[in-house]
Design brief:
It is found in: Golgi apparatus membrane. InterPro entries: Exostosin, Exostosin_GT47. Residues 22-52, 83-133 are annotated as: Disordered. There is one protein chain. The protein is an alpha/beta fold and 570 residues long. It has helices spanning 119-122, 124-128, 153-157, 168-171, 201-209, 231-236, 244-259, 262-267, 301-305, 334-346, 368-377, 397-405, 422-428, 462-466, 472-477, 481-494, 513-533, 547-553; strands spanning 15-20, 53-58, 63-67, 106-108, 114-116, 142-144, 224-227, 272-279, 307-312, 320-322, 351-357, 382-386, 407-412, 432-435, 458-459. Among the domains are: 137-326 and 513-539, no CATH class; 346-498, 3-Layer(aba) Sandwich (Rossmann fold). The strands form four sheets. The protein has a five-stranded parallel beta sheet with strand order 6-7-8-9-10.
Length: 570
Amino acid sequence: MVGKSLIAVLGNHNIDISVTVANESENSGDSVSLPEETNESRNTKTRDEGHMNIVFHDRSGGVFNLRTKDVFGIEEHGIEKFGHLSKKESEPHDRNDQVRYPRENKAESENGDEEDEPEEHLDKRDESDSESFSESCTGKYIYVHDIPSKFNKDLLKKCGSLSNWTDMCELASNFGLGPRLSNLEKVYSNTGWFATNQFLLEVIFHSRMKQYNCLTKNSSLASAIFVPYYAGLDVARYLWGSSISTRDSGSLEIAKWLREKPEWKKMWGRDHFMVAGRITWDFRRWTDKDSEWGTKLMLLPESKNMTMLAIESSPWNSNDFAIPYPTYFHPSKDNEVFQWQNRMRRQKRRILFSFAGGPRPNLQNSIRNEIIDQCRAARRKCKLLECTTGPDKCHKPVFVMKMFQGSVFCLQPPGDSLTRRSIFDSILAGCIPVFFHPGSAYVQYVWHLPKDYTKYSVLIPAFDIKNGKVSIETTLQKIPRQKVYEMREEVVKLIPRVIYADPGSRLETLDDAFDIAVKGVLERVETIRKDMREGKNTSFDYAEKVSWKYNLFGTVEEHEWDPFFERQRV
């Protein structure tokens, strides 16, 4: 996955991205026979050879180099590759059984055997999909476009071709949650844990949407319209060595399909929304040079009218919003969440702070080296799980989660881009996140995280770390014990808001990341609809380059964080 430069995509919001990539061999086109009633899924590749150099050109002439994220093989602390899922190492299996969908889902009985899920359990949406007006769904109805299968389920039917290095068919199972994780070391709870790939959010979100309470088949009743295009999975096949025409083909086709539908003309797409399961910079190619990275999906006129959801948004653009990366925990019952929260409250934490990640020697302004050095200098007060390009403990979720559960604070510096999945893994473990850039979380997940970041996290400016002005150990030790206790409690309370529940069931009293994202979309669309009724252009009348400020604070006045979002700075 390609990212913004760390502290600097930090730089100017108007950037060109040039990429130098060695050609890769084409993926195999294995065909997988799937059930007709499908819930698509597939993923993005990551392998060590897939790294490349990205050059960011800002409009004022600045040039920044960075190294992309490993996009299909090994990622930091297991987000991409699990040893037992490597194609070369995995045991032969029947591909026909690898991708399961709501109608096909099985539930495990207490003795470990699988038993059929009741039909009524998986099809509750049919009862609530009445075309008659329902008071409980007022302002909440969502219509799902029945887009051509080439944009989603057909991609999954060829799951064997999605990666030459990783078994994507297995990772795409269980509504996109992946295979269940064993709990031999008692790091997880007994149910709800999966080897979830971070780039399968599009599938998980779509699977959850199929169980949404207020779906309607009548688009005239809908408050918002969902487009289930798997943009990230589509483009992942072509990010390396392909022409821009190939990379853009899916985006241009879906845009054309949408604007020709009657639903589009109602608000010219302003009531439409889509999930792109990669970071925004994979969809913001500024020029039409083959050397440029990614697609131009989010720069298309149609996309600019829509609300675009991604695992990382652009602080300098107004039409995309970040929603949490998928974690490994996907509970099917409220009680599973409550039990996990209580366990994290009682967890003994003997490590002051920890870091799971690797250095970024090719990124000039990266603070990874300084953080690793400070962690080593702190000796027993800090634990380091250093990620390399080879298989090690950093790439297995059990070791990462175990370390986070034993830590009071978890360091979350920018890497190849401003955000990381590790942020949500640490929250899930009840570990207080320590950020070094407000663009890593505060201006990203505005619907899911508290506006008052001091309640649940610590911010240490990256500039001060780079210049050697701050000791992480000293800073964290100065926080009063009572304050630490209160912060941890806030982190534990956040757990339901940053996880995606199992799409095969429903949480009864808790809103998860999906629920909160849908509410955010509905509120935004309603604001736009109200403006259109009143003849206004938009309520979001501000320069796009200060979108981060308006979305978080509701103002574009001068702010102490402005230096973080200006030109690259050390």
